[in-house]
Amino acid sequence: MRSVRRILFRKVVNALITFFIVIALNFVLFHVMPGNPVRMMIPQKPNIDPAYIDMMMEKFGLDEPLHIQFLKYVKNTLILEFGDSFRTQTPVKDLVLDDLTWTLILMGTSTTFMILIGMTMGILAAWKRGSWFDTGSLGFTLFFYAMPTFWFAIMLILIFALQLHWFPTSGELPIGMKLTPLTLDKLWALLDHLFLPAVSLTVGSIAAFSVVMRSSLIDVMTEDYITTARAKGLSELRMLKEHAVPNAMLPMVTLIAMDLAFIVGGAFQTEFVFDYEGIGYATVIATQQSDYPYLQAAFLIIAVVVIFANLVADIALVYLDPRVEIS
Amino acid sequence: MTGYASRLVELLPVSGPTKEKLRLGGKKTAETLRIFRRNRLGMAGLTILVTFLVLAVFAGQVMILFSWISTGLGHPWPSAYGPFDDTNAGVDQPPSPEHWLGTDADEQDILSRVIYGSRVSMEIGLVAAAASMGLGTLVGLFAGFWGGWRDDILMRITDVFLVLPWLALMIVLATVLPGGQSVLKVVFVIAITGWSYTARIVRAQVLSVKERAFIERARAIGSGEMHIVRRHIFPNVFPLVFANAILTVALSILSESTLSYINLGPQPTEVVTWGNILYLASEENAMGNGLYLWIIVPGLCIVFVVLAFTFIGYALDEIFNPKLRRR
Fold this sequence. Notes:
- Chain A is mostly helical.
- Chain A is built from 12 helices and no strands.
- Chain A has helices at 2-32, 50-60, 66-78, 92-127, 132-145, 149-163, 184-221, 224-231, 236-274, 279-288, 292-320, 322-326.
- In chain A, α4 (92-127) crosses α7.
- Chain B is built from 13 helices and no strands.
- In chain B, α5 packs antiparallel against α6 (148-163), α7 (166-176) runs antiparallel to α8 and α12 (274-283) packs antiparallel against α13.
- The longest helix of chain B has 37 residues, at 110-146.
- The chains are: A mainly alpha, B mainly alpha.
- The interface between A and B is large, with 56 and 49 residues.
């Protein structure tokens, strides 16, 4: 048990180090780069109050040497002080956290379906290796994997919203509607709006899971204990369920965490095409309007979420796979 | 095939041992090709890829050919349009015999832009992939070979890039880095965000190769570090890198199209890529105005080229990765 605790400790320390490298990277990108983007964080409008400018300069330490700026930056980051958005003139922190909710709703739904569908297809393909299902599912999933997510999203809107009118074309809720307090009608509207974005994000990433599940299971099926299980006379279903799949699952856990970085990318594109106002949508809008405070905060928050998810997966793996303890 | 190659080798003005090495190398290549030809997905990918390469290299000639076909059908074009030609055919025209895919907001022929667009789209994909593979291989080689604290530092940095959501990082880099919108910047941004996975797998492979007897032997006879890395470790890592590189090209092409779609790629007035054709389409609301081909055709081009690289990548993976080879 001591060694498990030591492994966990190391994982947490590693995650913290990663987190601080990200903060440093963010600092370099927004403070040290030529043109000093952070200086542009102060609105350039002529009619702005000089006292406000002084306050901002003080808050971000723009008159100080670089190392003081860095310390101030770290402090501001830890208390989630990112300044005001240019677009809305409100604190970026509130905007980002609000947008994050929507992104998590979209990503949570999609990732769940991605994993369920991807694993099922992978298991079937490995079990019926070389069959038409194996080739067909590989071709099918790779086809959608090869598609730019934003383009697939456009195609979905074209067919299911503009031509067939089955779903709304954009947004996360009807215009003007707030999520809370949640009623049954609102939930229905939410699902109605969520369906196409979720499909666009899910379908494109199934291959990432099905292909790995397939090769992992094929790998496991060559192990001696599978031969033993078969020799004992276990049915194929029980052999798969009790011996093969649980062992083939282990690489999947790592994979889910690693793929998160990619799924975020897909979510960004989906949100942008559907005008679904999550972090991705707002980030793209922020690049177009040079809203640096938002960009900086969104990048950091989304990185923190992914780092945290990776840590959780790492820890889960320690408990799921006894072999990790030994190494 | 093999016989022809070995006779060719005989004619080369090189020394005996080199000749023998070349002969063996040729034999191995022929064997690889033989396995590759049996792989249906791989061959399909290669066919698609060659088609698009021909399209890219002979873009001007292809347009001339199309203009002949159109003349033959009774609709002569004023000229074989170039991608930036003002055709004076009107703005945002629907498809017609003179402009098969219609025209865009600058009265440019979309068909011509799609065909010429294959050049930069694939160029960026190839160059960015090569750059990120190069960087990843270097980091992986040295991290694995050195071990110790240097390995630790390199791997922490690798982890950061592995965990960070790639699209978010690309968007931030493309926005914050100086230099406006250019091909070089896109290549740089894709390369800098895409090297980490390569570094990981190269390092893992190096760690296993490093322990083998022939490395010890090389050390025993006094080979220098650089020599061992270059002549003994790298050749053993290369096949793995190669199969992975092909998949990276696919990802790089997708990245370019995504960046260009949100107008962070090269300027559409100076460089034409499939991604920025789609950007212009969304700017002109092609979807709402029923100009569907403007969206569908460039998107399908991306899908097919990415699919081609993906298929080839998977085929090579099956060849180089003995675990996946059918028993």
